[in-house]
Amino acid sequence: MSVKSKIFSAMKQIAEEQKVTLPPLEDDLSLNETGFDSLAFAILVARLEDELGIDPFTVAEDAAFPSTLGEFVRAYENVPA
Amino acid sequence: MFPPDIIALRQYLGAGPKDRTISDARHSVSLTDMIQHSCLAGGPSELSGRSVLLATSGQLLSALAMIELDGIARRMLLCPPDLDWDCLQVLLERADIDTIVTDRPLHRSSAGKYVVIGVDLPERRAMGSEVDRTTEWLMLTSGTSGLPKIVRHTLDGLSGAIIAEGPARHRNATWTTFYDIRRYGGLQIFLRAVIGGGSMVLSEPGEAIAAHVARLRAGGVTHISGTPSHWRKLLMSGASANFSPDYVRLSGEIADQAVLDGLARAFPRASIGHAYASTEAGVGFSVDDGREGFPAHLIGQNHAGVEMKVVDGSLRIRSRRTARAYVGADAPPLADTEGFVDTGDMVELRGERYHFVGRRGGIINIGGLKVHPEEVEAVINRHASVQMSRARSRRSPITGAIVVADVILTNGTNAERHERIRTEILGQCKDCLAAWKVPAVIRFVERLDVTAAGKLARTDA
Fold it and tell me: Smallest Cβ distance to A38: which of B399, B404, B441?
């Protein structure tokens, strides 16, 4: 499974737990439009760290938090495993 | 300056049946014989007015020495087994110690600095010294980091709850505790045995739980006390099957409904009580109705000499059972100007009952919203397949921290059921807790560490 599909599957799982209806997941979807609040993103980042072994937002001190779903996924893809 | 009616610990030895004993895994000593015997080389008279460190390898010799020294020594510092020498040296200075009672060779840097008195099983006959003072009992706090604080008690304060209940309430009991008796929780049980005319079976470090329980059964233990963590371990082990005590007591940590119910199922014959006590605040109260928390009417009134109030969410206690003071040159005050000790234990009123929610220092801050790990654990522990859990903080780049939980499942839980159990636990948490308190991640683990004081280890607290 690709990093991207792992991220999407984790998001769907959290959306279900948090009773959030996700819009279609596309690269230019703004993170605001996902319906996730900061807690949901915190849960997502923690679970992805367990699954992928990386937390790209803590590794780099100056990491800007992404604004679109595509940027979010790339943050994971660009970290050398 | 001393009240004329000092009652020293050994004056309770004559009470109760003649065959009272105190034992560990290797030895059994007659408590009744202790009236005329001494465990101290040279007898107790050498220790009159001394400031004594009790540093024995096992609990039994400490127990015997406590009986002999109370009313004789100026003060005695009870030394738990896990203290390293560097730490101890600082504490000895602070407590103004001049004499060490020990069965071990001493660290060489202490040579000449202290009078050293040997201690052994009480085989020599000795006349007890005259009880002529109120001995100060010094104990160490069980904090997890840094140098422990030394708190000063008197026997009168330490035994306040026992005397108030009526020592005869548990006549002919044989007591035991998972605690070490050189810590507050364990000392309470030792004092219950001595003052109440009973016997005692001591715990043994490193003893396997099945062997331990077999020894408790062989020793005829009727009354037993431990922390909820101790009890969960026992329930988990299955070793409780053939053990049937009359009285089961919990203290030292929050007793949640799951552990109370678990004990009620495991020990249908026993009366089960949970007590609130701390090294500093002494014994506050005990609750025997099998429900978590405590009745709200205990707050704001004087119950058997204990007054409690809640300020800024934390429980405050004033009574003669609290420690007298912290010991040392620039020790902070132990109580406020009105004599109330701030326990640092946070409580919440729900209906007619107060519930403990956690320690003030243990709060997890999730983007400004707070949660006590203990309140999350209490909900997780309600799941039938959960034996024990620990909620903790995990740093988050988004909210600063999030809650995660480590969970031990009951024996024999099929790994195929893990995902379903995880979903059920999360659902349970969602039903009972605010969204930020629900664990972001649940991990199933084989074990959780418990500290030397019998409490769940909380590295982030």
Answer: B399
